[in-house]
Amino acid sequence: MTIEKKINGEVANLVIAGRLDTQTAPELEKELDAILPNLKELTFDMAELEYISSAGLRVILKAQKVMNTQGSMKLTNVNDGIMEVFDITGFLDILTIE
């Protein structure tokens, strides 16, 4: 997995590519822990995300809970496979997906 961060003040865009799974979720969580306290807007660009596991879902949910209290979060460019995972797990009701 690779993470490309674009941060401009209180706005961050994270481009996530590859697999977000048990091996890579801690890396994303560490990146988020460092930037979340200062954000009002968070966007995940998932155009290049190939796979997400329950560990990845947990990190996304944790970020959503934080952003619910201090701003907004959205996911963009979610492919059909990842969208199906969000649908099956009920995350479509929790996340803002554009």
Average pLDDT reading: 96
Record the strand order, biggest sheet.
Answer: 1-2-3-4
**Helical content band:** 25-40%
* The CATH class: Alpha Beta
**Full CATH superfamily name:** STAS domain
- Strand proportion: 25-35%
CATH architecture descriptor text: 2-Layer Sandwich
**Based on the structure, what is the oligomeric state of the protein chains?**
single chain
- Gyration radius (Cα, Å) is 12 Å
Number of strands: 4
Main sheet characteristics: 4 strands, mixed
Number of helical elements: 3
Domain count, please report it. 1
Shape: globular
Helix and strand composition category: alpha/beta
State the order of secondary-structure elements, H for helix, E for strand.
Answer: EEHEHEH
Q: Looking at CATH, which topology would you report?
A: Transcription Regulator spoIIAA
Low-confidence spans: none
**Could you give the distance between the termini?**
22 Å
In short:
With 98 residues, this protein is an alpha/beta fold.
Describe this structure in words.
- This protein has 98 residues and is an alpha/beta fold.
- The chain has one domain: STAS domain (Transcription Regulator spoIIAA, 2-Layer Sandwich).
- 39% of the residues lie in helices and 35% in strands.
- The protein has a 4-stranded mixed β-sheet with strand order 1-2-3-4.
- It is globular, with a radius of gyration of 12 Å.
